[in-house]
From TrEMBL, chains A, B:
Entry-linked Pfam families: FUR (PF01475)
Organism annotation: Yinghuangia soli
Comment on bound cofactor: Binds 1 Mn(2+) or Fe(2+) ion per subunit.
Protein name: Transcriptional repressor
GO annotation (BP), single: negative regulation of DNA-templated transcription
Keyword Transmembrane helix on entry: no
Localization per record: Cytoplasm
Family (UniProt): Belongs to the Fur family.
Entry keyword annotation includes Transcription regulation: yes
Keyword terms, alphabetized: Cytoplasm, DNA-binding, Iron, Metal-binding, Repressor, Transcription, Transcription regulation, Zinc
Source taxon at top rank: Bacteria
Binding site for Zn(2+): C89, C92, C129, C132
Gene3D superfamilies associated with the record: 3.30.1490.190, Winged helix-like DNA-binding domain superfamily/Winged helix DNA-binding domain
Binding site for Fe cation: H83, E104, H121
DNA sequence: ACGCAATTGACAATCATTGTCATCTGAGTT
DNA sequence: AACTCAGATGACAATGATTGTCAATTGCGT
């Protein structure tokens, strides 16, 4: 019989461990390619295809958040579990998780008022963080 | 001298007119490829490259809104001028423009609380519209 | 140690988007 | 109306992220 606790997470491999623990250390949103390069630098080389698949699996499992940069590239970040949004610095990528219960309610109400079902939403706030604001002033 | 009123909009060509007036008629978010196909159907054929360039110009001029589908494809729609958000059907693209003054205030407050400046935000609500919900039930 | 299904990764394939560049054309000028 | 030429077009190639393929590898239960 299977050891019951590994919640449909598949086998434990060197590659998955490497990707997962890298995500624990990096705190900004990063592309699959970025993460792949970082792994190579650290000598924990993992095939690019595997990086993509692992990230996808983690995203499906809700363990990482995915969003898209302005040019459509997917970027990943390990976030806290519950539903939340992001305040992201355009200059350096610094990210703060934020919550807005009122926004959640508002979105749900708007959607149902218009007869939409199976509702979800995406909300990101972009700006220039304190340090970057200072840096930009010289 | 130039006729002064054409606000840096470039020349008036058959192709640009075709794309622009197509956008007036279509009310959902559509990809460049979709719009290109629609034009072909209508006998107003326009090169795909030109469709892309025209959409980009319109987007830069703030005359169309752009957002990305879940798989990263850019979709375009002629919207009203002011700041607003969208309620979009995942299945058919049907779109409703929505406003949320409270959300605007919330986003600004959150950002300044964290020392961010030059703030903007993106907010889209996704769901299945009434007709598509019915269709999905058979 | 054994056996096999899950996993990996080099490589090819896909697909939206952008770059190239020879050709065409809008719109002033004569 | 004919002339000019910078801006515009479009067929085609190139890019770049992501996904598909499949033979070789490996985790893990036996
Ligand atoms: Zn910053
Ligand atoms: Zn939310
Ligand atoms: Zn619909
Ligand atoms: Zn807003």
């Amino acid at each position: 019989m299977t050891t019951a606790n590994s919640q449909a997470r598949g086998r434990s491999t060197r590659q998955r461990t490497a990707v997962s623990s890298l995500l624990d250390e990096v705190e900004d949103f990063r592309s699959a390619q970025d993460l792949h390069d970082l792994l190579k630098q650290r000598g924990e080389s993992v095939g690019l295809t595997t990086v993509y698949r692992t990230l996808q699996a983690l995203a499906d499992a809700g363990e990482v958040d995915v969003l898209r940069t302005q040019d459509g590239e997917a970027v990943y970040r390990r976030c806290s579990q519950g539903h939340h949004h992001h305040l992201v610095c355009r200059a350096c990528g610094r990210t703060v998780e934020v919550e807005g219960p009122a926004v959640e309610r508002w979105a749900g109400r708007i959607a149902s008022e218009h007869g939409f079902t199976d509702v979800s939403h995406e909300l990101e706030i972009f700006g220039t963080c304190g340090p970057c604001t200072l840096a930009a002033r010289g």
